[in-house]
Specification:
The protein is mostly helical. The chain has 2 domains: about 70 residues; about 150 residues, Tetraspanin (Cd81 Antigen, Extracellular Domain, Chain: A). The longest helix has about 45 residues. This is Tetraspanin.
C-alpha cells in the first residue's frame, strides 16, 4: 500500500464517521429538534453529505497520490480546505446551540404541551419524548392540566407507566392520573440529553475538521515533492 493509499484511507474513515454522526443526529435527535425549531434542521443532512463527499474524494486523493499528479493533489487540498471550513462552522454552531437550548426549548416545549392535539407533528414528537425518556409534561404531569387537550381526553397515554393500566377516565381524573403516569417532567431530561449529545457531535466535528488540516498539509507537501522530482529529471 503506497502512502497515498494509507492517507486517503484515513480520510475515508473520518468521512464514514461524519456520515454516521449525521445519521445518528437525524434519527436520535430529530424529534427533539422538531420541538425546538419550527422546521426540521438541515444540519444532519449537511454532516451526512459532507461525510459522503469525504469518502468519495478520499478515493480521488488515493488515485492522485499514486498517479503522482500534482494538480490533482492541489485540487484535493482545496476540497479538504472547504471541508475544514464547513466542519469548523458546524462545530462552532453546535457549541453555541448547546448553550442556548434551555430558554428556547422551555418556550417551545411548553407551547407544544399547551396546544397538544395528539395528531400533528409536534404532538407526536411530544409523545415520542415522553415514551422514550419516561417523563410527563414540562416540569411534571400537572403541566397537562392547563392544556387544551386535558378537558377533552385528559393526560396523553404517552405519560402512562403501563398503558394497559390507563383508562381515559383515569387520565381525566387528576387524583387517579397521578398514580398512573410518570412523575418526572421532561424539560430537564431533554435539555440534559440534547446538551450532552450536541457536545459529542460538536467535539467529533471539530476533531475531524482539524484532521483535514493535516490532509491539506500532506497533499501540498506531496505535490511539491512530485513537482521537484519532475523538475530535477528534466
Amino acid at each position: 500500500m503506497c502512502f497515498g493509499d494509507f492517507f486517503s484511507f484515513v480520510r475515508s474513515v473520518t468521512g464514514v464517521v461524519l456520515l454516521a454522526v449525521g445519521l445518528w443526529w437525524k434519527f436520535m435527535l430529530g424529534p427533539y429538534m422538531l420541538l425546538i425549531s419550527s422546521s426540521p434542521s438541515n444540519a444532519p443532512y449537511v454532516l451526512s453529505g459532507t461525510g459522503a463527499a469525504i469518502v468519495l474524494f478520499g478515493l480521488f486523493g488515493c488515485f492522485a497520490a499514486c498517479r503522482g499528479r500534482p494538480w490533482m493533489l492541489k485540487l484535493y487540498a482545496v476540497f479538504l480546505s472547504l471541508v475544514f471550513m464547513t466542519e469548523l462552522i458546524a462545530g462552532i454552531s453546535g457549541f453555541v446551540f448547546r448553550h442556548e437550548i434551555k430558554g428556547t426549548f422551555l418556550t417551545a416545549y411548553s407551547a407544544a404541551v399547551m396546544r397538544y392535539d395528539g395528531r400533528d407533528d409536534r404532538s407526536l414528537a411530544v409523545d415520542g419524548v415522553q415514551r422514550r425518556l419516561h417523563c410527563c409534561g414540562v416540569y411534571n404531569y400537572t403541566s397537562w392540566f392547563s392544556s387544551v387537550y386535558f378537558p377533552i381526553s385528559g393526560i396523553p397515554t404517552s405519560c402512562c407507566v403501563h398503558v394497559s393500566d390507563c383508562s381515559e377516565a383515569d387520565l381525566k381524573n387528576a387524583t387517579l392520573a397521578a398514580q398512573k403516569v410518570y412523575k418526572e417532567g421532561c424539560y430537564e431530561l431533554v435539555v440534559s440529553f440534547i446538551e450532552s449529545n450536541m457536545g459529542i457531535i460538536a467535539g467529533v466535528t471539530f476533531g475531524i475538521a482539524f484532521s483535514q488540516l493535516v490532509g491539506v498539509t500532506l497533499a501540498c507537501c506531496l505535490s511539491h515533492i512530485i513537482n521537484t522530482n519532475q523538475y530535477e529529471m528534466v
